[in-house]
Design a protein that fits this description.
CATH topology of the largest domain: UDP N-Acetylglucosamine Acyltransferase, domain 1
Largest sheet: 7 strands, parallel
Strand order of the largest sheet: 6-9-12-15-18-21-23
CATH superfamily of the largest domain: Hexapeptide repeat proteins
Number of domains: 2
Radius of gyration: 19 Å
Number of helices: 3
Helix content: 10-25%
Number of strands: 23
CATH class of the largest domain: Mainly Beta
Structural class: alpha/beta
Order of helices and strands: EHEEEHEHEEEEEEEEEEEEEEEEEE
Distance between the termini: 55 Å
Strand content: 25-35%
């Protein structure tokens, strides 16, 4: 079984460790963080080392790497650590949860994390260092470029192209055959019906709190 090191020591890292252990795809042997974030010697009952000591403890000839970092600073931290680990000589692997429905001709890059219950149709291309949470739809011929993050229940219609380093909140979506420029933020429940220029931010209207109490509302 492939020996694997996870970069990170945060809730996402713990979640990913759980799924990997449950699936049996890799043998997680330890974790790594920057020295200033190292608060203990163990994480999830495995050794936790600093980047400064990584090569001595877990050399790249014996261990592979998966950067399990979230979308902070619009995915820039995950991108930085991904490039750093590559430069240090590590082979970056993917984690794709077994519950996903993925067409056989879908292309997936490296260091990409796809959690449970996603549906990915034929002719889709997913780049490097992409993070997908649960229950997303990528329709046919969609392209997701490097360093993007899709949270949950995101609907990407057919022939959509999403450029690098975009973030999609829960329940967001993009209509057919559109392009989303790099570093866009598409907030929860936002729906794009036209192309998005780079670095655009979309926010759906907030839910309105009614003045009457729930006891006065009749549900049919």
């Amino acid at each position: 079984m492939t020996k694997l090191i996870l970069f990170g020591a945060a809730p996402l890292t713990r979640l990913l460790h759980y799924y990997i252990a449950e699936s049996g795809i890799y043998d997680v042997c330890g974790f790594v963080v920057d020295e200033r974030f190292k608060k203990a010697d163990e994480f999830c009952a495995k050794p936790l080392v600093s980047v400064e000591k990584l090569l001595d403890v877990f050399p790249p000839k014996q261990y592979k790497m998966l950067v399990a970092v979230g979308y902070n600073k619009l995915n820039e931290i995950r991108k930085e650590k991904y490039l750093q680990m590559k430069a240090m000589g590590y082979e970056l692997v993917n984690f794709v949860h077994p519950s996903n429905i993925i067409a056989s001709n879908v292309k997936i890059g490296e260091n990409t994390i796809i959690l449970e219950d996603n549906l990915i149709q034929p002719f889709v291309s997913i780049g490097n260092n992409v993070l997908m949470f649960s229950k997303n739809l990528l329709a046919h011929d969609a392209v997701i470029e490097d360093h993007c993050c899709l949270s949950s229940r995101v609907d990407i219609a057919g022939k959509v192209r999403i450029a690098e380093s975009c973030f999609f909140g829960v329940g967001a979506g993009v209509d057919f055959d559109l392009t989303v420029g790099e570093k866009c933020i598409v907030g929860a429940r936002s729906w794009l019906s036209s192309d998005a220029e780079p670095a655009s931010v979309y926010q759906a209207p907030k839910s309105i709190k009614r003045k009457l109490p729930s006891s006065r509302v009749k549900l049919k």
